[in-house]
Amino acid sequence: MLHDRSPISEPEARTVLDADDVRRIALSFPKTVEKERWNHPTFDVAGKMFLTIPDDQTSFAVRCPKHDREELIAAEPHKFWVPPHEASSSWVRARLSAVEDIDELYDILLDSWRQAAPPDLIEE
To answer: In b/e form, how buried is each residue of 57-95, taking b as 16+ CB within 10 angstroms?
Structure first.
């Protein structure tokens, strides 16, 4: 069973997380594989994508049900947004510079991973 808090400890607090942090956490989840799509890294579990890191690597996109997405964006518009070309999808983007710390990043990525992972994998 995956925990709701990051098992990945940071030796020192950092003010800005980066794409390497996103990659490291994503690959720590069971059965996660990295694939290149659209000329940038994406991450899958059991054949379903749960994370992308766009070209500029200052943000990332995760799964988010549309009904939760509007509330999330309204609560933290400096952190979360949806580009116009992704408006019809069930994804949201997050600015790495606005993520509070490694634990929050872990929680966001884990939530997206759980949405894509098969139930039997989540229960492990």
So the answer is: eebbbbbbeeeebeebbeeeeebbbbeeeeeeeebbbbe
**Is 83:106 a contact under the CB 8 Å cutoff?**
no
Q: Let me know: does 6 contact 28? Beta carbons within 8 Å.
A: no
Torsion from C-alpha of 94, 99, 101, 106, nearest 10 degrees: -20
Task: Write the secondary structure of 50-77 as one string of H (helix), E (strand) and C (coil).
Answer: EEECCCCCCEEEEECCHHHHHHHHHHCC
Tens-level pLDDT at each residue, the chain (124 residues): 455 555 555 545 546 799 999 999 999 999 999 999 989 999 999 999 999 999 889 999 999 999 899 999 999 999 999 999 989 999 999 999 999 999 999 999 999 999 999 999 987 6
